[in-house]
Design goal:
single chain, Growth Hormone, Chain: A, globular
Length: about 425
Amino acid sequence: MKATKSLLQVFQSRKMAALLLLGVSSGLPLFLTSKTLQAWMTVEGVNLAAIGLFSLVGLPYSLKFIWAPLLDRFTLPFLGRRRGWLILIQCTLLVAIALMALQRPAQALQILAVNALAIAFLSATQDIAADAYRADVLEKREMGAGAAVFVLGYRIALLLTGSLALILADRVSWPSVYLLISAVMVIGIIGTVVAPEPKERDRPPASLADAVVLPFGEFFQRLGLLQGLLILLFIVLYKLGDALVNNMSTPFLLQTGFTQTDIGAIQGGMGLIATIVGALAGGVILSKIGINRSLWVFGGLQAVSNLAYFIQAQLGRDYRFMILTINIENFCAGLGTAAFVAFLMSLCNQRFSATQYALLSSLMAVSRDILVAPAGRLVEITGWPMFFIISILAAIPGLMLLPIFAPWNPKVLAVPRPRLDDDSSQL
C-alpha cells in the first residue's frame, strides 16, 4: 500500500506535469517531417521511392551529438542551463512549422525538403535540451515514471500530428493543417516556463573542448570499450524492425484503401487510449522488474506486433482488423519506448547529459531515419506482406545483444546510472 502511494505521488508531481508538456513539444515536429508529410506527398502523387528517401530529412536526429556540446557548455541568460535553450528553440520551431503552409510538394519538392530539414534540425536541438533536462531533473526512483510520462506526452503529440492532422486534411487543405498544428507548440513553451529547475550537482564543462571530448571519454572509461561499443550497436538495432514499419505504415494503409479519416480517427481514438495504457504500464512494469527485463519483454512485443501488419496485408481493406493493428502497434510502442528511454537515461552522467544522451538517441535515430530510407524501394521489390516479415526479422539482431550487457538475471547492475560524485565524472 505504501509503495503504491509513493508511486502515485511520483506521478502527480509538478515535475511530471512539466515532463508531460515537454514530451508533447518534443514529439510534435517528428511526424510533420515524416509520416504526416508522407501522407501529404502520397495524396499529391509523389512516387514511393521519393517518399521513402524523404526519411533522410531526419538526418539531424542522427547527427545532433555534433552540436550537443554547445548546449552542455553554454547557458543562455534566462531560465537556467536547459530551459533557456528550450524556450528559444520552441519559439523558432513554431515559425518553421508555420512556414510549411507555403509549400507545394507536387511543384517544388526541393523547397519542401529544405523547410522540412530546418524543422528537423530545430526539433533535434530541442530534443538535446529536453532529454538533458529530463536526465538532470529525475531522481533514480523517478526514472521509470519520468520516462513513462515523457513518452506519454511524446506519443500524444505523434497522435495529434499523425491522426488529427489526417482527419483535418480530409476537410481543409494540408497547408492549413500545418498552420494550425504550429500553434500547438505553445504547449511546449508553457511546459518550459512551469518546469522546475534541476539541482546542479556538478559543474558544467569548463571549456568547449572539454564539452566535446570528456563526455565520450567518460562514457567508455565507465563502461569499457567493448561493452560501450556493443551498447551503441544495440541502440542502433533495438527499434529497427519497429522503425521499418513506422516509416511505411501510412502509405501502406492509404494504398490498402483506407481514407485519411479512417486512419486518423482510429489512431486518435482507440490508438490514443492504447498509447496511454502502454506508456504508463511500461513505467509501472519497469519499476517492478527493472530496466534489463523490460528491454527483453518489451523488445519482444515490439517485434511480434509487426505480425498484425502482415495479417492486414493479407486481409486487405478490413476495417475491424485495422483497428486491432493500430492498437497493437501503439500499445507495444508505448511499452518499448518507455523502457528504452529509461535505459538511455541510466547511461548518462549529469555533467555531460546533453552530449551523452544526444549521442545515444542519435544512434537510435540512425535506424529510424537512415537505415529505413530504402524501405519504399524494398516494398516495390517484395510487396507489402514480405516487407512486414522482413521487419520482424530486422528486430532480432538487437535482441540478440541483450544477454551481453542486460542479462535477464544480472549478478550486478550491468549499466548503472553513474554516481555524480564518482572520480570518473571529473575526467
